[in-house]
Amino acid sequence: xxxxxxxxxFAEVGNYSSYCRCVKSERLSNGKxxxxxxxxxxxxxxxxxxxxxxxxxxxHSVKAHSFYQRKKA
Length: 73
Description:
With 73 residues, the chain is of the alpha+beta class.
């Protein structure tokens, strides 16, 4: 909560995901990479926290581990 502040400042879910650095910042055109936008934009601490939480969930939750294996395949 301290890193995000007021959640209502994000108009849509995608804006929050981008702020947390959970989405790629590259631009594609016709399947070709045309550049990377400001990939260091957003909150690096939230990005780190979500990665750590995901790794913890994969190790300790059977449901999360099976979901990860399906997506990995």
